[in-house]
Design goal:
This protein is an all-beta fold. It contains 1 helix and 22 strands. The chain starts with a strand and ends with a strand.
Length: 319
């Protein structure tokens, strides 16, 4: 199904979109297979840019107010930290105007929470324990997962209901949580009431903020976000089958690594559309007032951000 959507608060037609059915009655959108008539001159491809916390980097080759920018971004941050990393686009030289497109903490998620990787019941991950402890009598496997999520060293975990013997720091009959520094292979264990899982990544969203997009007193800004974890893994390769700017991972259709996020930005003067993982989209209007609000800056706050690849094109007016 091909959908043409209207921009919020304006009667302007945006990029065409193909509607997708996502789990839990959600609807997603991806770009149609060929919108190559919108791409102009290539502005180049950049790879392997890493920013440490509080670092920024201007990208003079990417300046303009009619751009297509596609990027693959990986962020490393402690679950407990408030982090943000990505792009400041349509930025003025003195940074008094800019629009932010970034990966950041999910403001709707509990502090210190992480994406929920499925729990495997009836399986053990033997070895590589660095800490074990008894939990409350009411504890469940997800409580052990939360404990793992809050410790940077923890890569996987095992939870045992009513341990039938004393082991490590857990006494007989206790509900025991084992935190592991690695990810041992899963093995069936029918002797114990046991569950296992891996540490999740910090609960991450793609956010688009227009709070500093314009100095005009009539412009109102907002922040919009979509959860990265809501994109099913089998759909995350969607944008790799589109037009030329998205052939970044080798063969078409090759999905990104599990810890990487694909972002595609389309900037057309006052119109901004941002696709994440080729499946979800945010559309915004922005109204910069300064003639030099055409810059692009990379940034990282409270995290290490690796821009695996960035590819940019001039955008042409639709004919």
């Amino acid at each position: 199904m091909l959908c043409v959507s209207l921009l919020r608060h304006a009667g302007i037609i945006s990029l065409p979109r193909v509607a997708l059915s996502l789990p839990q009655y959600q609807i997603g959108f991806k770009m149609p297979a060929d919108i190559s008539n919108l791409y102009g001159k290539s502005l180049g491809t950049l790879t392997g840019i890493t920013l440490n916390p509080a670092e920024t980097e201007l990208m003079p080759l990417l300046s303009g107010n009619q751009l297509s920018i596609s990027a693959t971004l990986s962020v490393t941050a402690p679950v407990s930290d408030i982090f943000s990393a990505g792009f400041r686009i349509l930025a003025s030289t003195n940074m008094s105007e800019y629009t932010t497109v970034a990966l950041s903490n999910n403001p709707d998620a509990p502090a210190g929470s992480c994406n929920e990787i499925p729990i495997t019941k009836g399986f053990d991950r033997s070895g590589q324990d660095y800490r074990s402890f008894a939990m409350a009598s009411t504890a469940v496997p997800s409580d052990c997962r939360a404990a793992c999520c809050n410790e940077t060293k923890c890569k996987s975990w095992v939870f045992v209901f009513g341990l039938p013997f004393t082991f490590q720091s857990c006494s007989t009959g206790s509900n025991c949580c084992f935190l592991k520094s690695g990810v041992p292979p899963l093995k069936p264990n029918k002797a114990l009431n046991i569950s296992a899982g891996e540490a999740g990544e910090p609960n991450t969203v793609l956010s688009v903020s227009t709070l500093k997009s314009s100095l005009s007193p009539e412009a109102t800004g907002q922040e919009t976000h979509v959860p990265i974890s809501s994109v099913p893994p089998d759909l995350r390769s969607s944008q790799h089958t589109t037009a030329q700017p998205f052939r970044r991972h080798g063969e078409q259709g090759t999905p990104p690594a599990s810890n990487q996020v694909d972002i595609a930005m389309f900037i057309d003067r006052s119109v901004l559309e941002v696709f994440v993982q080729g499946t979800l989209v945010i559309t915004e209007r922005v109204y910069p007032t300064l003639a030099d609000s055409i810059g692009v800056q990379l940034f990282a706050t409270n995290c290490t951000a690796t821009f695996v690849s960035i590819e940019a094109f001039d955008m042409q007016d639709a004919s």
